[in-house]
Amino acid sequence: MDITKSRSLRGEIQIPGDKSISHRGIMLGALARGTTKITNFLQGADCLSTIRCFRQMGIEVENSCKEVLVHGKGLHGLSAPQQILDAGNSGTTVRLLSGILAAQNFSSTITGDASIQKRPMKRVMDPLTQMGACIESQNQNGCAPLNIRGTQLKGIHYQSPVSSAQVKSCVLLAGLYADQKTSVTEPTVSRDHSERMLSYLGAEVTVQGTTVAIEPEPELNARDIQVPGDISSAAYFIAAGLLVPGSQILIKNVGINPTRSGILKVCRAMGADIQYLNEKSGCWEPSADLLVTYSPLKGTVIEGDIIPTLIDELPIIAVMAAFAQGETIIRNAEELRVKESDRIQTVTDNLSAMGADITAAPDGMSIRGGQPLTGASIRTCKDHRIAMSFAVAGMAAEGVTSLDDAQCVEISYPQFFDDLQRLS
Fold it and tell me: Which of 18, 312, 342, 383 is catalytic?
């Protein structure tokens, strides 16, 4: 797909539902008693993989696109799958579901596509093993496929070496079935959607600093789940509105959970004009409309505790930094190396191809911005966040920017290019 420099972007947009919350709605809806209605569910390939896995385990899921109905059977209502569970490209599905599968009264195997089979799963295998789980990497390389034989789990306190919502959520979901309280301590707080939804459906969850604890064997009860717009998807329109001169975009109903909204803090530090409208803070997941107006940006330093709150947004932040005046430094983001692609290297290579002055580091990158970028051939590595980030870069650069695989955006945002077009 070819992208050319855009004229000003104007209008309002409703972005798709939050990917993390959509995944968790299916998983916890399946483990609750009764029917969970999920509205604004993200109809992306990753979330559909989660639906497919639970259908294989006997859970009826009705998906009309406008809403999803999950007919839960309670904590112990899953059935043994007759085939290998296929998570597609979804690391969330593999890691979170492993915590549930480890406690069932059946054996299972879960895998995914070629990308998933290279991503590190030892980070969930280790705590689950400490809980007594029987889980092994089929190829003995710490990656999927994972063979899991369900067993009785024991409650533990896990000191996680990484701040990862997927690791934390895996342990908490396993803790639903443990013989006593289970807790997780992280270096810094990662996104807390699991804790919020578990509490919302009836689990006893306590949070103290960077430690989360859950009591076993709760009665989870189905409740309606309204999914706010995904801030990770909103990030591309935030960046487009800030980078394309003369633009003003109203992005409706965006989730602004403080464990996810680091990009908004970074944008403010870079001099962005973003207003919160219609803010809703009393609901289980806070949201607001975001009014984004074109703004000259300046460089900043991004490091430390804020990193887990914007880890998925760092590729588009790097694009913004390339157009900003001054230097932007990103540190403590080594997690980017083990995403759908090595996002540090992929971003560095592609921005360099467009003429940016950027240097990769083991845990981040330095971007000396402010010089014009020109279109280039972009290697997406089949990574949806790379494709969307460089689509935006192409809208602010001179010449033609060509994406080698635009289709990969269907992982998280199937109508991304249609929505961009509507604002042009």
Answer: 312
